[in-house]
Amino acid sequence: NCGICIDTLHFWRSGCEYSEIDQLPRRWLNFVQVADARGPVRATPKEMIRVAREDRAMPGDGVIDLKAIISRLPPDIPLALEIPNLALARKLSHEERIRSARTKLLALLADIEAAAA
After folding, report:
1. 57 and 95 Cβ atoms separated by less than 8 Å
2. Mean of the pLDDT values across residues 58-74?
3. The pLDDT of residue 70
4. For the whole prediction, is pTM greater than 0.85?
5. What is the side-by-side order of every strand in the sheet holding 4-7?
6. φ and ψ at 94, to 5 degrees?
7. Which H or E run includes 106?
8. C-alpha closest to that of 79 among 29, 15, 22, 13
């Protein structure tokens, strides 16, 4: 009764290989937390915590190869957007951020589906 939740930010910054996902039993994969990052995250604990809590990028706006991760997951896996971003919260309303995140994630999923066809 347990499984694995892949958080794309932590997967990327921990140096995991995409092929590691292929080796997991599909029944272990319950959902994925989708976020992107703008660039190399300094390895200090303080900076990693700051990025995780307040500076994640919208899907597709950063350097993480989200397509390589998501395309390896079961097609019916629930996706959770986990994109705390203090700068965007100061500029955009909750609704605007949600709509933007949804649009970006749907575009990413459409690209993955087109590449698989």
Report:
1. no
2. 95
3. 96
4. yes
5. 4-7, 29-34, 79-81
6. -55, -45
7. helix 94-116
8. 29
The first and second tokens of residue 67, run together, are 């397509």
Rama region for 59: left / alpha / beta (φ>0; ψ in -120 to 50; rest): beta
* DSSP string computed for 23-78: TS-GGGEEEEEE-B-SSPPPS-HHHHHHHHHHBPBPTTSSSS-HHHHHTTS-TT--
Q: Which residue has the tokens 């997991």?
A: 24
Give the C-alpha separation, 55 to 114, whole Å.
Answer: 30
Cβ contacts of 87 within 8 Å, gap of 6 or more = 55
